[in-house]
């Protein structure tokens, strides 16, 4: 389980990559696709996002956790309702999450996972029958506990689904232990995380509740070319 900073792209060759940014990019991606968006296109920069936008597309994202000037939406999953995004493409650029997805693009399959769709993501990853690399987006290249917690939950599901196939590196083992120690206090862990505290200061505590709904959505976004679509 590498963090973004140590994730050299060679690590992804011939693998299945699972990118995680619980607060909030991959939670938003999962929510938007579950709400009926046709696809989500992760863009690295604000300029890229604007260049990709075609008539009818929604352009969303954040910098410093705030909506980008001129964009229709920020990075709150609560904005991506069926009414807002149903039947439309979403172009999304965020500080860490969409960058993590770009970093994993050399993998054979790239999945966007969050606490919301962890079980479905683990199942889909196993179906690919390749080694799995879990990429925690973190925050500005630092580890973020909510992403580690989600990585540990994925490991928990993988072990339950196929115990004989799971061999963990040390970091993977540590994230599994982190999850097991906090399985009953997921929301509290998110609230007390650095990203969680930042979002609460900005008045976005509701987003944390949304992002903490473990295994509440059974869809799996995966990359097809430059677009995240549903399996
Ligand atoms: C990101 O991708 O950097 C995050 O999701 C940040 C945020 O939502 O505030």
TrEMBL record:
InterPro entries: ComB-like, ComB-like_sf. It comes from Paenibacillus nanensis. One of its GO terms (molecular function) is magnesium ion binding. Its EC number is 3.1.3.71. Pfam families: 2-ph_phosp (PF04029). This is Probable 2-phosphosulfolactate phosphatase. It is an enzyme of class 3 (hydrolase). Keywords: Hydrolase, Magnesium. Belongs to the ComB family.
């Amino acid at each position: 389980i590498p963090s973004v900073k140590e994730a050299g792209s060679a690590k992804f060759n011939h693998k299945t990559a699972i990118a995680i940014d619980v607060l909030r990019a991959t939670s938003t991606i999962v929510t938007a696709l579950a709400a009926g968006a046709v696809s989500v296109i992760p863009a690295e920069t604000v300029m890229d996002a604007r260049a990709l936008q075609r008539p009818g597309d929604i352009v969303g994202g954040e910098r410093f956790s705030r909506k980008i000037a001129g964009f229709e939406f920020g990075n709150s999953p609560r904005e991506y309702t069926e009414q807002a995004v149903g039947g439309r493409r979403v172009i999304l650029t965020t500080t860490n999450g969409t960058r993590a997805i770009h970093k994993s693009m050399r993998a054979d399959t790239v999945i966007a996972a969050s606490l919301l769709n962890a079980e479905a993501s683990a199942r889909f990853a196993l179906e690919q029958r390749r080694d799995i690399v879990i990429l925690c987006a973190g925050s500005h290249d630092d580890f973020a506990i909510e992403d580690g917690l989600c990585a540990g939950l994925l490991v928990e599901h993988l072990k339950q689904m196929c115990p004989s196939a799971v061999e963990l590196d040390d970091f993977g083992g540590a994230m599994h232990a982190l999850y097991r120690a906090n399985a009953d206090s997921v929301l509290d862990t998110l609230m007390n995380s650095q990203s969680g505290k930042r979002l609460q200061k900005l008045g976005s505590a509701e987003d944390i509740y949304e992002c903490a709904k473990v295994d509440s959505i059974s869809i799996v976004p995966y990359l097809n070319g430059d677009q995240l679509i549903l399996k």
